[in-house]
Amino acid sequence: MSLLVAILLSVNFLTSHPLTGQANMSVLVQNLNTGEVIDSYRPEHVVPPASVMKLLTTGAALETMGPGFRFPTILEYTGTIENGVLHGDLYIKGSCDPSLGWKGRTAFLDKWIKAIREAGIQKIDGAVIADMTMLDAEAQNPNWLCEDAGNYYAPGIFALNYYGNTMNIVLQSGEPGSIAKVLKTEPAVEDVYFINHIRCDKITYDGAFVSGLPYSRERYLTGAVPSNLGTFGVKGDLPNPGLLLARHLTNRLREAGITVKRDATYIADFNPLTPARTVIYTHYSEPLSEIIKETNVNSNNLYAEALFRYLGTRYTLPGTIHNSQDLLRDYWRRRGVTIQNAIIKDGCGLAPQDAVSAKTFVQLLTIMSRSENKEAWLASLPVSGQSGTLKSLCPQTELEGRIHAKSGTIAGTKNFAGYIDMPNGDTWVFAILINSAPGKAKNVQTVIQQYLLDVYRANK
User: How far apart, in Å, do the first and last CA atoms of the chain sit?
Assistant: First the structure.
């Protein structure tokens, strides 16, 4: 089949299909080795990228910080230590590490307590204070939908993140028509207050919603859960993860026999006149290569937004969302990426205003394929039919294991951008962005999968 015929067939498949023909679409498929365009449809047209947006964030982070970068979290104190007594406060100074306490892993607290003891501290006259001043207090991106605020996938982003900034709200399901009972939270959050309207209904799915704002103690619970199911978990965000970390450290210190006089607290507002502190210990996160792998393979919004917010601190302190937006745009513009028409509101793709073209993603992916950080970059992308968010793409077909890409999904939207390994040794780079399709995202994916297979078969 000639190249011209192959292109016409593939474009016609997308533009004439009932699900995608009238959708908002931008497509570009290009040979990475030769620069030859394999297929395209409005490649410069900007459309909402959903989680494909994470490529802009993780690529910039990897290139500017390097795969070996580790987020530091610093234990430091004010005052003096005399005869085993700290006459002052102990601070936990955060720098946006998203992995502290991830999946409940808190063994690092033992190392912190050991370091505090080795500093000669047996008693603290003050308090353990969570220092979250590296970022401003706008923890919730104002460009996100109000309905997302409080949900586990859209948590507030702080200089101190802990437990994935997520709590599991354990409910007791009852008879149809009754209100589910809130039993506890995991981890326990002592001062959160639930306004609970979750009803028990004759359904088989989780239809409960959590809403609330960062720092607020109130969480609104609405929707429904299956009736007569026993206990039932609903995930929501942690209102103040830094404060929870300070409380956990305080409790662990007291259990270890180190007295802490006052209750844990936090500071959220940057003050350039802060008194000098003495460093006791610096905790380092896993390397950035692992953090971006979690971000891209599992499409982790917390990890993406923590990277996005940290990048903004390179402009000024405290870091702001506006600074992060500017840095991301400026960085890729300097690298030669066509970014002038893109709209960048966050780092993870939750903002419905985000808009990026297929051409922008193909240019970015081309740059990253030639970077000295190429190995870490490719390792951060899920593989078709095998891993992460690409496990359901092209399984048991010729393209299983040949696609390394990032996906993006919202209602009526399915996007992909990445690489295809061809049998002749060439690599294709592609972006397929399809929005506002009149159908479920999984059905749009079926169309995209057939499109990819058709183009692959016609050109291999």
Answer: 10
